[in-house]
Design goal:
Blueprint: E1 21-26, H1 41-44, H2 48-54, E2 57-63, H3 73-80, H4 92-99, E3 109-118, E4 124-126, H5 134-147, E5 155-162, E6 165-171, H6 202-218, E7 227-235, H7 242-246, E8 250-254, H8 257-265, H9 280-287, E9 293-298, H10 300-307, H11 310-321, H12 324-329, E10 334-338, E11 355-360, H13 373-377, E12 382-385, H14 389-396
């Protein structure tokens, strides 16, 4: 059963002066206390601008999927956009494909690939192939696209995403997404076989196995970029847009393709791409005033979390904090700061822990003067599900009508 979002006809689509909503997502924002200080990465960072926002914001903790459930980035963002990720089950492959501009047709299957390093015995020695440069990643992708060969009626195309990340697109009749990932998530072992897990998915699994075998042969002489790990298989299908559901015309400002992909999936536009963290405000400024919802994404917090680098995640939060004066100059009516999930550096992976969240507006109920897990746990929002964020943003922006007489 899907989670109810809003009573029917609650969105005020005829409002003359609807408020603007700026949604800033620090990927993997939530953390765990450092063993020596007892403070999380967010609580350890010097964040004068986020603290100033917190002092005039409603604070709370957010579960992207549900208590105890560790979300992937795709489900986490869908939840933030108001889509119950248990109802709208969309694999990361489709989101990554859309993010790099791949033209997906109904029925195509896409997957997210990692360029990886394998030893002579076929064991994975580096799941990210040393994080190659974009130029090196594109070189290998171009080589494979020229050399791969499949039976008539099967089209397999690779698209480079960023560094070690690559998108696989398969076009053929009778494809299904119910196949297993091949990433073992650890090194020192062989990759996992791609196997069908549902009726009608054996053809997809067979094509994937063929692709992986061909890739290993073609890349056999490469010292590091000599194979792939595959995950996030998704059969492309359309879903209702945010404008259809909530009356919101949205735009995404995100450096990494996957996050542009999930934004496109729900109908957002992409007009510019930041070259780095510091250029984000300028890209946002270029599109400001033309949309209702502005989604801004930062990745460095999550990357540091996966690397297990506590100080680097603190530094990433501080770098993003320094951008908020530029965001405030745009005068958004509602400013939300949250994450799509927690990535504690102590775990080096996504976790089930709730994410600190603030909603700043003229109608917020402040409760603290700093932004962190401890202050958010005692805030006005309480502990909410991710899909409740957009309805609350609509209310703060004056975009909902009264329910009942």
């Amino acid at each position: 059963m899907s989670r109810p979002i809003l009573p029917e006809d609650q969105v005020d689509r005829a409002g003359e002066n609807p408020g603007s909503i700026l949604l800033v997502v620090l990927d993997g924002l939530g953390g765990l206390p450092h063993p020596e200080t007892g403070r999380t990465e967010l609580e350890s960072a010097k964040t004068p601008n986020l603290d100033a926002l917190a002092a005039r914001a409603s604070l709370g903790m957010l579960d992207p999927v549900g208590p105890g459930i560790t979300p992937g980035s795709g489900p986490g963002h869908l939840s933030l956009f108001g889509y119950d990720p248990t109802e709208y089950v969309i694999g990361r492959g489709a989101l990554s494909a859309l993010g790099v501009g791949v033209d997906l047709k109904q029925g195509d299957v896409a997957a997210r690939l990692n360029l990886a390093t394998f030893d002579a015995e076929g064991r994975v020695t580096d799941r990210r192939a040393g994080r190659p440069s974009d130029a090196e990643g594109r070189r290998v992708v171009d080589l494979l696209n020229a050399e791969l060969s499949f039976a008539e009626g099967i089209e397999v195309v690779l698209h480079h995403e960023k560094e070690h990340r690559v998108v696989l697109k398969i076009t053929a009749e009778g494809l299904d997404e119910q196949v297993t990932d091949t990433d073992p998530l650890i090194t020192g072992v062989s990759d996992l076989p791609c196997e069908a897990t549902g009726p009608g998915s054996e053809r997809t699994a067979s094509i994937v196995r063929d692709f992986l075998d061909q890739s290993r042969r073609i890349l056999a002489d490469e010292p590091a970029l000599n194979g792939f790990l595959a995950r996030g298989f998704a059969r492309f299908r359309t879903i209702p847009t945010m404008e259809e559901r909530f009356g919101l015309r949205g735009v995404a400002v995100a450096k990494y393709p996957m996050y542009r992909g999930v934004a496109k999936m729900v109908g957002m536009e992409v007009e510019g791409v930041p070259s780095d963290t510091g250029s984000t405000p300028e890209v946002l400024k270029e599109v400001w005033g033309r949309y209702d919802l502005y989604f801004v994404h930062f990745k460095d917090t999550d990357t540091a979390g996966h690397d297990g680098d506590f100080e680097e995640k603190v530094a990433a939060i501080q770098e993003i904090d320094a951008l908020f004066p530029a965001f405030m100059e745009l005068d958004p009516d509602v400013l939300i700061v949250t994450g799509d999930h927690s990535t504690p550096t102590l775990l080096k992976e996504h976790s089930w822990h709730a994410v600190p969240t603030l909603i700043a507006s003229k109608t917020a109920r402040p409760s603290a003067s700093s932004f962190g897990e401890a202050t958010c746990r005692g805030g006005d929002l309480g502990r909410i599900h991710g899909t409740e964020l957009i309805p609350r943003a609509l209310a703060h922006a004056g975009r909902l009508v009264k329910y009942g007489a």
